Amino acid sequence: MPLQTRVAPSKVVLQNLLICVILFYTVYYAVLGMCCMMLKVYELDVLAPFDFKTYPSWLNTNYKVLLISTQLTYLVCGLLFVLVVEEWVWDYAISVTILHVVITSTVMLEFPLTSHWWAALGI
């Protein structure tokens, strides 16, 4: 008996991907705001999710806010994506990450080559 797989229509996949991307950036900005309050950073940069040029240092509070926000966003979104898509969570998570890299490159007008930024995405 052949193994049968269920394939979702393209419209459903694109709709779910759009929901996941919107959810990702909503969670990112919410976590970023909370991290700013907890670490007493009073200036919230609107482009913070796309910032890969901040100097990586544990003494730099802005860097800590960006790092913690990225890590918590991926953790929370991984759990929330299960509620949205139920199956293929890794596929959607990787697709959202690729879109995030593309959007980051577009917003910052250069491709992120800094190792600390890629390490934060990969953890």
UniProtKB/TrEMBL annotation:
It is a multi-pass membrane protein. Pfam families: SYS1 (PF09801). The chain crosses the membrane at residues 12-42, 62-85, 92-113. GO terms for cellular component: membrane. InterPro entries: Integral_membrane_SYS1-rel (IPR019185). Keywords: Membrane, Transmembrane, Transmembrane helix. It is found in: Membrane. It comes from the Eukaryota. This is Rho GTPase activating protein 18.
